[in-house]
# Entry
Amino acid sequence: MGESDRTVSSKVISEITAKEKELTHENRPVASGPTAQAQKHANEPITGQVISDITQGEKHVTSRNVPVSGGPAALAQSVAASKNNPVSSSHTGHFDPDTISLISSAEAAITGKPEPVKGGPTAQAQSHAGEPINSQTLHDITEGEKVVTGGARVKGGPTSTAQSELSKSQNQNQS
# Structure
């Protein structure tokens, strides 16, 4: 995949705008909303900071503390995850750098901050670097997720991300 696949392209901004309109029911994007945040990063690589800014924009239009499932921040996170892990990549079923990066992106989407939270899911994943993903390590990620959410599990959050990587590795090994 080329570098352009990893950027805030006009296509990504258009998709974020569509998601924002679903939330606001407005004909145009809202000032300081997720589209405005994405536009500030036009043609830049999709990083944790970009996801964080889009998350803050989403929180601005929804007045909620967490991103909406399937909303603009989730879209940006999904684009970043799919671009960082092309179909040809290997899903190892371990806490490798790619999996830890995906968990970090999921955490950033929840917290709105690019840096991991002490004791949060990224920290938990890093403590298991190189280890297989299993029920105990997933439990630790869940406990870390609860640190950043105040006790709740988030659909598409860090634990779900780790479970998805495990599932992909098992499916990959069967084919």
Residues 121 and 143 are 7 Å apart (CA to CA).
